[in-house]
Amino acid sequence: MRKRILITGASAGLGEEMARQFGALDRDLALCARRLPRLEELREEVTAAHPGVTVAVRALDVTDHDAVFRVFGELRDELGGLDRIVVNAGLGKGQPLGTGYFAANRQTAEVNFVAALAQCEAAMEIFREQGAGHLVVISSMSAMRGMPRNLTTYAATKAGVAALAEGIRADTLGTDIRVTTIFPGYIRSEMNARVRKTPLLVDTKPGVRSMVRAIERERPHACTPAWPWTPLSFAMRHLPLRWVGKFV
């Protein structure tokens, strides 16, 4: 059992709900995000509901790469090791390329890929030193293909982190380090709170429950919820590109 779990981007959305659900499984938690007061509130909530669970929190901007390594190390020391690290922090900004919003697209790329690289580096340093661990990277169903409009940059970054995770998995075959890539479908979160008409959107709790179940199985990759996203992943990879936009 992976007793000690670090989650980035844990102050809201999918990361916050993952913390609640892993806490309910009696796991000790190391939670990072920029908004420390929200993490402290979450710590009080989880420890009140599950008194035997330890929750350590740290403020962390994942684009501060030096801080990523420092904070991961501090949390490892506080919990006496880390068994699983969930690279979850992300950003959903984006506009069609060439429309004057390079700053927003660049910020999404820096948070979703470069900062994820820093988190994976820090996690793998810990796991290589320990000789074991479970790295979990949160990608997206949009990573299956290039996506149009506001999703173009976002989808590219999520495809990038999926490829990064697969490379780490290839590099650690035959060891006690496991790597899982999660491809969430449309799950309600703070990032998409203003979206009203997205097809196949599920509420946060059941959506994250499917993610936690997949993470616990430690398979190389999983689409969540499995239905309908596992069969849809095949369709998204093979349909003509002009049809792929129908999924967004």
Automatic annotation (TrEMBL):
<dbReference type="InterPro" id="IPR036291">
    <property type="entry name" value="NAD(P)-bd_dom_sf"/>
</dbReference>
<dbReference type="Pfam" id="PF00106">
    <property type="entry name" value="adh_short"/>
</dbReference>
<dbReference type="InterPro" id="IPR002347">
    <property type="entry name" value="SDR_fam"/>
</dbReference>
<protein>
    <submittedName>
        <fullName>Short-chain dehydrogenase</fullName>
    </submittedName>
</protein>
<comment type="similarity">
    <text>Belongs to the short-chain dehydrogenases/reductases (SDR) family.</text>
</comment>
<keyword id="KW-0560">Oxidoreductase</keyword>
